[in-house]
Amino acid sequence: LSAALTEVAKNFGGKQRMTENSIQPALKSVRRALLDADVNLDVATALIDGVKRRSLGKEVTQGVTAEQQFIKAMYDELLDMMGGDASQQSNRNPSLQSPVASLAHSPDFATTNKPTVILLAGLQGAGKTTAAGKLALYLKEREVDSDAVKQMSEEERASTLASRLPKRNRRVLLAAADVYRPAAIEQLQILGEQVGVEVFSLGADADPAEIAKEAVEKAKREGFDTVIVDTAGRQVVDEELMEELRRVKKTVEPDETLLVVDAMTGQAAAFLTASFDSAVGISGAILTKLDGDSRGGAAVSIRGVSGKPIKFVGVGEKTQDLEPFYPDRMASRILGMGDVISLVEKASMEVSDAEAARIQEKMVKAEFDFDDFMTQSRMVSKMGSMAGVARMLPGMGNMIDSAQLKQVEQRIKRSEAMIYSMNKKERANPDLLLTDRSARSRLMRITEGSGLSFDDGLAFMSEFQKMRTMISRMAKQAGMGQGQDDSE
Ligand code: GDP
Ligand code: MG
């Protein structure tokens, strides 16, 4: 898909407004890429419609290009399609989107002696038993040990930990309810040993529902707060398997019934999820083998086709290769342009559309004043240091001379100091400092007030004047001022 998006960039050719014509070729190549990735046809169509709705007629946010904004629209649609909402965004507050967070925060957790029960279902070879071991490890770990927390900055860590301890840190019991393959019980026992979690089994002759029931009773007696039930699978969906799952489900009333599906099966995984849901009722999916060369079709299609969320993803054969499913991370991964998205997000966060429109209008009329200057430079500084922003642009990372950037940042700081020393009238009316008779004495007062030399002041004013003229010319050229003379 990222190849398609690189192609997309060419189609926009620096246009400032997205029109039907300018986005049509882009939509076409994105559609082709989605189908190539084995995304379900209906889901692909819905995605394209959504991107169109989000892009058509939209002005391009200041500080980003049309193709970057298009990619962001694509990203937002993917996010919606995969069930992303604010609480599930990995970069906001990683501790809040754990798919089991709802379990950890359930009010009856710890107040009753009913353990949380997680039932795993799926076809043979999908990765159920492996997922059982992985999930046991994940739930057993403290959140402090998890990768998401390790990736946080000190600051983020302190704030999340302070508000959310204790974390998972659960006492897990694994239940071996796959009685059809003798090796299945042993496989789970080995996994249990690896992750340090006890495995409950009644041997290969017992009834799966009975195994699950006794495991839950043992958990209550011995203070386990979580039971994960591994079940049998078949080669294909059959009624016998569904009936068995229904029985286990009725017996232990699991909090989560998770379908384990193989990402390599592409959009077939989505249909499988839908059929398991109608036959036994599931609460979500664990998408395995995402480390292989699956093309993303399953991840994009599952929720759109079945209505069920993906809760975890398996990314390898080892027990630690399980991650909560974060729609935003997956969307970035599918687009292959994660950093562009955070750049666009930051840029559009700082300039509301209304504010951007107001500034643009002023630019065209050359009314750009010191307040606007401040708004803009504040936007830059809120986006992080300029060097940081530049590094987020694909391919720009190495081309930036950081000494140069530091200089620019310093100049902006100096300008800000001067603007702070101006009065309201002066800020809104730069001519008072440029051409007015009182200009010289005003400038003297201001430079003194800001601790700068008069020469600094003169330099700033000449720079500002140049910038104002340049911006006005650029704005006219880019056609921002509709109805204005654009014969230039
Ligand atoms: P089950 O029949 O559903 O219980 O499947 P298993 O848990 O026995 O897994 C079947 C095979 O898939 C095993 O060889 C696992 O190592 C492998 N497997 C499971 N999950 C993953 C994963 O996320 N990535 C990779 N690469 N292999 C996996
Ligand atoms: Mg198994």
Automatic annotation (TrEMBL):
Residues 86-100 have a biased composition (Polar residues). GO terms for cellular component: signal recognition particle, endoplasmic reticulum targeting. Residues 84-107 are annotated as: Disordered. It catalyses: GTP + H2O = GDP + phosphate + H(+). The chain holds residues 63 to 550 of 584 of the full protein. Keywords: Cytoplasm, GTP-binding, Hydrolase, Nucleotide-binding, Ribonucleoprotein, RNA-binding, Signal, Signal recognition particle. Its main location: cytoplasm. Its EC number is 3.6.5.4. It comes from Cyclotella cryptica. Belongs to the GTP-binding SRP family. SRP54 subfamily. GO terms for molecular function: GTP binding; hydrolase activity; RNA binding. This is signal-recognition-particle GTPase. It is found in: Cytoplasm. Residues 309-322 form the SRP54-type proteins GTP-binding domain. It comes from the Eukaryota.
